[in-house]
Amino acid sequence: LAPLLPHIDHRNRGMRTRLGCLSHKSDSYNDFTAILPDKPNRALKRLSTEEATRWADSFDVLLSHKYGLAAFRAFLKTEFSEENLEFWLACEDFKKTRSAAKLASKAQRIFEEFIDVQAPREVNIDFQTRELTRRNMQEPSLSCFDQAQGKVHSLMEKDSYPRFLRSKIYTDLLSQTQRRLS
């Protein structure tokens, strides 16, 4: 048993190092070029303090602004929960589907990616919602994900959104827009 102890200690030390790296992950972005879509330097110059401040008015205002959406996505990545936003966006895109032929295949892809148990990017929804969505998949319609999407929206709004507004990502972004004015 004694010869195994140094090996076990070495593995634990390695695990502590890896966990330490995760726990020190910062949600600060001093360089916002990584989170802003298309031509980020120009985008940051165009983003006004007023626009960024409006993101705090409501969660839906944040989601409707492309730079707000990008900043929120970056924040969710620091929390390892970006699958919630990706699912919500996939549902929004799904609702725009006009082709009946594409409807079923798109619905299946969304279900397999986000809803199914052990899905690669499984969202956190209750059993009843998961089962209702599974039943809706038997005859997919534009509303088959409505309940699941609503639950995920509510979860983000009540949980992630308030933390985003307090995060360094958001406060640093506001500071950068304010500094441009002075």
TrEMBL record:
A Gene Ontology biological process term: negative regulation of signal transduction
Classification via PANTHER family: REGULATOR OF G PROTEIN SIGNALING, REGULATOR OF G-PROTEIN SIGNALING 8
Main subcellular location of this protein, as a coarse class: membrane
Listed Pfam families: RGS (PF00615)
Xref: InterPro entries: RGS, RGS_RGS8, RGS_sf, RGS_subdom1/3, RGS_subdomain_2
The gene coding this protein: Rgs8
Entries under CDD domains matching the protein: RGS_RGS8
Coiled coil: none
Keyword list, A-Z: Cell membrane, Cell projection, Membrane, Nucleus, Signal transduction inhibitor
PROSITE patterns: RGS (PS50132)
Originating organism: Steatornis caripensis
SUPFAM superfamilies associated with the record: Regulator of G-protein signaling, RGS
Membrane topology (UniProt): Peripheral membrane protein
This protein's record includes keyword Cell membrane: yes
A GO cellular-component term linked to this record: dendrite
Compartments it resides in: Cell membrane; Cell projection, Dendrite; Nucleus; Perikaryon
Record protein name field: Regulator of G-protein signaling 8
Superkingdom as given in the UniProt entry: Eukaryota
Residue ranges occupied by any RGS domain in the UniProt entry: 58-174
